[in-house]
Amino acid sequence: MSLMSEKEKKNLRNRQRKSLYFSRLCAAVTWSSVFLLCVLIYQVSVDGLSWIDWQFISSFPSRFPERAGIKSALVGTLWLIGLIAIISIPIGVSSALYLEEFTKPGKLNKFIEVNISNLAGVPSIVYGILGLAIFVRFFALERSLLSGALTMSLLILPVIIIASREAIRTVPMSIRQAAYSLGATRWQTAWAHVLPASFPGIMTGVILALSRAIGETAPLIIIGALTFVAFLPEGPMDSFTAMPIQIYNWISRPQQDFHDLAAAGIIVLLLVLLIMNATAIYIRNKTERRLK
Amino acid sequence: MSELAFAENSTATNETVETIKDKALDLQEVSILYSGNPAVKKVSCYFMRNKITSIIGPSGCGKSTLLRALNRMNDFIHGVTLEGKIMFASEDLYGPEVDPVEVRRRIGMVFQKPNPFPKSIYNNIAWAPGINGFEGSKDELVEHSLKQAALWDEVKDRLHDSALNLSGGQQQRLCIARALAMDPEILLMDEPCSALDPISTAHIEDLLFDLKSRYTIVIVTHNMHQASRISDYTAFMEMGHLIEFGETEQVFTKPLVKRTEEYVTGRFG
């Protein structure tokens, strides 16, 4: 280092200092959001943790806070998520495959792409109104789980399509060429090679999208999910409630006990979300390893 | 696979090449255009059965484009059009009746960079015959293909390991084995050794010698020594034109065109 002049040393010190400041700034920003999450979880836990017991999980809602539970909302949410996944994943992934593998690049493709991006930005309440008009009224599906799931699927489809397209685009061209040069059709290439290779990326998009759906309230309120349900849905045509709606209902009551119940509901909602994401990430990592 | 009659006595483009009836592919005034810009201009030549033909020329001369046209891989590049005829047996590869999938099944290809599927060695080979309705024993097919590609002894104990764990040279031989498993009539190779070290390259060159008794091979190469070592016929291209085409020995020792002589002796390019 003795080869450096004083001026060069000073310049290097300055640059290193700037680099250090910037990395600290980035760290501060990152940790502040983690901190906010911790505050949220702490706040909710203080209010709600004491309310969580088996009675809370296994009871229907009630006028009396000590007897109220989240059973119907929990089951409703699980039904909803299951139906949303069944509806939106095949449609979303097929659309992405079609747009990436089967259409030629051109104006029409660009037009569709722009519109899908726009749809991803439409407020969720607008989807609720759409769902009310189309599924509840026009198709006469009533205020059922199926209406809710279809509406929510519309809401998250753009997210799934965009994420899946990104994932499909990262599959190297050489893999497709290899398959085509062996006499595979487009479909065989897409099914056997492109889809498995992009599966981890598609899973990430699906996780994000379903996580969004599990917390959505507005569209469900519009299409008319009930807020007081003392029975369990037995099929996709039954009426239902969901956790965000139950939480919203409790929060809007004047009594403090119900506010604490809402906090307990939030904890359960977060847990469901966490379990769901963990499972998806586990599946993703497992398939990722198999591919390598 | 050889039930088709081969076109006889097509017009020879070069007097010095003896007229042999066995032409696997016969190119007639082939031009290839990228959105209207010609990359290959009115090339006429032919590829002999059970011979190795190499295509040489400076970068950007259109040799890879020409090679990809031979099994219709250019179809996947937007805006590419082809004029002229490529006769495969008595049929034009670009005729209206021809299904490109069938063309690619019968004319195999090995690429510049080894591109094994991210699957096991076994499945790399067995997949394509499977989707094409192969009915025999897959185990035998895998063994036979790997033996043909001189890879069997190195991988026979780990057929179900990922192909991505193989070395670059082994991966390329796996790609050759994968192409051979389809029992193609012609094998196209696009600079198959350019990403490999000299030992792997020697392996593959030996392999090509063994394979030519059963397959017709067309190889694009940047390596002049490789072309002179392994090929029976050589085509020299420049700026999209076919400058010279003939037996390798003649092209390298007594080229008819001055440009060819300059190129093969390393005075340009």
Question: How would you characterize this protein structure?
Answer:
The complex is a heterodimer of chains A (about 290) and B (about 270). Chain A has about 290 residues and is an all-alpha fold. Chain A has two domains: about 5-50; about 55-290, MetI-like (MetI-like fold). In chain A, about 75% of the residues lie in helices and about 0% in strands. Chain A contains eleven helices and no strands. Chain A has helices spanning about 5-50, 55-60, 70-100, 105-120, 125-140, 145-170, 175-180, 185-215, 220-225, 245-250, 255-290. The model of chain A has no long low-confidence stretch (mean pLDDT about 85). Chain B has a single domain, classed as P-loop containing nucleotide triphosphate hydrolases (Rossmann fold, 3-Layer(aba) Sandwich). Mean pLDDT of chain B is about 85; it is low at about 1-20. Chain B has ten helices and ten strands. Chain B is of the alpha/beta class and about 270 residues long. In chain B, about 30% of the residues lie in helices and about 25% in strands. The longest helix of chain B has 14 residues, at about 200-210. The chains are: A mainly alpha (about 290), B alpha/beta (about 270). The interface between A and B is medium-sized, with 22 and 27 residues.
